[in-house]
């Protein structure tokens, strides 16, 4: 119950709508967001839409271990797709519903990562990540900068 405070219903709604749009089908009415994605099958389907063939086998039946295998396969596919390790939820966060907020953060990280894949034409989730803006300075420019007295140097 403590972790429920961190959950953001608006973000969950956005994540759900994104998943529904990617897959072209709605979540079953009356089912909770975390219950629909809990066994990993929906998440694996999303990953296969973004990166076809990234998860060759999705377990649709079987016990707890088969479902957790789905989650693990999804997590591995996320990393292969370019989502940073730090953004990937732990299996128990989803399977035991310990931290659904973290799962939603992972989905947003995945949504942001899709911008870096030109083959994906949308839909997108979350803001487009900023791109690095490298600056190149010549030796003369760097030397010229050393002669300037910064105003913060004791003014």
TrEMBL record:
It comes from the Eukaryota. SUPFAM superfamilies: Calponin-homology domain, CH-domain. Gene3D superfamilies: Calponin-like domain (1.10.418.10). GO terms for cellular component: actin cytoskeleton. GO terms for molecular function: actin filament binding. InterPro entries: Calponin-like, CH_dom, CH_dom_sf, SM22_calponin. Residues 9-114 form the Calponin-homology (CH) domain. GO terms for biological process: actin filament organization. PANTHER family: CALPONIN (PTHR47385), MUSCLE-SPECIFIC PROTEIN 20 (PTHR47385:SF24). This is Muscular protein 20. The lineage of its organism: Eukaryota, Metazoa, Ecdysozoa, Arthropoda, Hexapoda. The gene is mp20.
């Amino acid at each position: 119950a403590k972790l429920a405070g961190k959950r953001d219903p608006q973000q969950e709604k956005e994540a759900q709508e994104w998943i529904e749009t990617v897959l072209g089908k709605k979540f079953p009415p009356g089912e909770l967001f975390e219950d629909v994605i809990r066994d990993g099958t929906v998440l694996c389907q999303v990953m296969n839409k973004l990166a076809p063939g990234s998860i060759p086998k999705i377990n649709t039946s079987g016990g707890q271990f088969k479902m957790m295998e789905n989650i693990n396969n999804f997590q591995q596919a996320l990393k292969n797709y370019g989502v940073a390790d730090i953004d990937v939820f732990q299996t128990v966060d989803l399977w035991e519903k310990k931290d659904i907020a973290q799962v939603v953060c992972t989905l947003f990280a995945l949504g942001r990562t899709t911008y870096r894949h030109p083959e994906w034409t949308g839909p997108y989730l979350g803001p487009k990540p900023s791109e690095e803006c490298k600056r190149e300075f010549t030796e003369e420019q760097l030397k010229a900068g050393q002669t300037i007295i910064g105003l913060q140097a004791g003014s």
